[in-house]
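BUG-318 | component: ligand-complex export | severity: low

The export step for uridine-5'-diphosphate jobs runs without errors, but we want the raw record kept on the ticket for reference. Input record follows.
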Amino acid sequence: MKVLVTGGAGFIGSHLCEYLLSQNYEVVCIDNYITGTSDNIKHLLDDERFKSIEFDLTQNIFPILSKLSGINYIFHLASPASPVDYTNYAIETLMVNSAGTYNILDLALKNRAKVLLASTSEVYGDPNVSPQKETYWGNVNSVGPRGCYDEAKRFAEALTMAFYRKYEIDMVIIRIFNTFGPRMRKEDGRVVPNFIQQALSGKPLTVYGDGLQTRSFCYVDDLIDGLTKAMFLEKTRGEVVNLGNPNEMKVIDLAKQIKEMCASNSEIIFLPLPEDDPLQRKPDIEKAKKILGWNPKVPLDDGLKYVIKWFERVDSLR
Ligand code: UDP
């Protein structure tokens, strides 16, 4: 079986490629490396079942079509995903989720492949209800700084549903909540890599706002388990499913926990809250439990330990 992973050189994509190879799939990875990096997949290049293509999915896909023949499954992950990245690449984010998603859905239709669209908890915006269920429509500011990502993913969801309704393609939409793990980029600006690096280097931990906003953090291995179940179980066809860890916590408490785990003397400072930063986020995962038999297993403490070790190792190699 042949699987395409778009955004395969990104943080989540590279873990997914690795896992799929371990399960004996043939894997084709597409990435344009604006936020992914070839470092994430260089250890896979010797595997003859693995092919990597540098390509921008918003372009005409025809020149690479021959390399994509016989694809059975498509994980469509390609998109900047951290607030810092999608602010820097706002137009690219809108284009890869619109034109890029169109190209991928068209490819799926031609190959009769199943598509998994990697969507996001950001489609819920700054939610008025908590926890967020798949049936909640969201509270999104289309013209705010996060609109480029939120609306891009909402459009990608709508386009995927349109292909499903009109052409009856096989598809599933997964809304990914905050995920963390090794290979997050140092400079991607997300809270876990920021706090860990700040704590390890003795710099102040930068809490935005009063730190009372909440997030729920899922370790990457749990997410990969959920993504692959969602793709390979037949009964997920046409479904929209949240994947995330429902263990909700305040950002200030995350800062304190990371500082303690790194045995750091860093101070904790408070900076302005970015515009439209959601005040709460917690997935309702009842649907994932029911139809995927999925439940995240890695406790936050363990996950943070792995990532702290990883950052220490990467730093020692510099
Ligand atoms: N955050 C923070 N300090 C940082 C980076 C982020 O306090 O150095 C906060 C951010 O304002 C948000 C939460 O941590 O409330 C999660 O931010 P992240 O960028 O990881 O992802 P988001 O959930 O906003 O997409």
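Assignee comment: Attached the raw record above. Residues 200 and 312 are 8 Å apart (CA to CA).
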